[in-house]
Design a protein that fits this description.
This protein is α/β, with parallel strands linked by helices. It has 2 domains: 120 residues, 3-Layer(aba) Sandwich (Rossmann fold), CATH 3.40.50.1390; 37 residues. The protein has 7 helices and 4 strands; from the N terminus they run E-H-E-H-E-H-E-H-H-H-H. A 4-stranded parallel beta sheet has the order 2-1-3-4, sandwiched between helices. The termini are far apart.
């Protein structure tokens, strides 16, 4: 008997897959909880390398339908998305993308839609990366310090170096200053 599965993916822990489940239900898909695979992982990670998607592949059988809300839930890399859909088609699994209004992704028309949308998703990701790099370069050129704030002030570092030279243990200092042991050890390498 053919079953329907939902693959719901978000990129960060601050996001939720709840809306994707609601979208599938609103579209008329009654998907059992055990047939819903939700995971938090970047779309830039190839589908085959994602733990949740790999688990899904083990569950799917010929005649099953896989529902995704948008094509970019499968991935952001055009080649990977196309390869994933081809792999599913070879397994006899139908892929239903809600954003494409039910176009069969294994048909000629479906492959065209899928290729264009996957290419747009990859383009958007590439633009985001370019903008991020440009912003970081601008910040560096303006003399801004990037990255996390130092956990110790220069004065604290001086005191710690002196106390280490006196024989105070690095672990004790780490506890006293509420930093990690390696943070203290790095100060011995920087002197």
């Amino acid at each position: 008997m053919a079953r329907t599965f939902l693959y719901a993916r978000v990129s960060t822990a601050g996001q939720t897959t709840d809306n994707q489940l609601v979208e599938a239900q609103t579209a008329g898909f009654g998907i059992l909880t055990r047939h819903t695979i939700a995971e938090t992982i970047s779309g830039s990670v190839p589908a085959g390398d994602r733990p949740g998607f790999s688990k899904l592949l083990d569950k799917l059988d010929e005649g099953d339908t896989l529902v995704v809300t948008k094509l970019d839930r499968l991935g952001r890399n055009t080649t990977d998305v196309l390869g994933t859909v081809e792999r599913l088609a070879a397994m006899g699994v139908h892929v239903h993308c809600l954003a494409l209004k039910g176009v069969d992704l294994t048909s000629a028309s479906g492959r065209l839609h899928m290729t264009v949308l996957a290419a747009v998703a990859q383009f958007e990701r590439d633009l985001l990366i370019e903008r991020t790099h440009a912003g970081l370069a601008r910040a560096r050129s303006e003399g801004k310090k990037l990255g996390r704030r130092e956990s110790l002030t220069p004065a604290q570092k001086e005191v710690i170096r002196a106390r280490l030279a006196e024989g105070v243990s690095a672990r004790g200092l780490a506890k006293e200053y509420a930093v990690s042991h390696p943070t203290i050890l790095k100060l011995t390498q920087c002197s």
